[in-house]
Amino acid sequence: MATIEETCALLKNFDQSKSKDQLKTYLDTLVTELNKTKPLTNAKAIQQIITSVSNVNLLDHQLFVILCNYYFDLLCRWRTGQTLDSDSSLVFTQIAILFCDQCRSATDNNLESLKTIWINERLINEICTCLKEISVEGKHLQDEHVTAIDYFLHGINHLEKGRIEIQNMKLISFY
Question: What is the pLDDT of residues 117-128, one digit of tens each?
Answer without folding.
Answer: 888 889 999 999
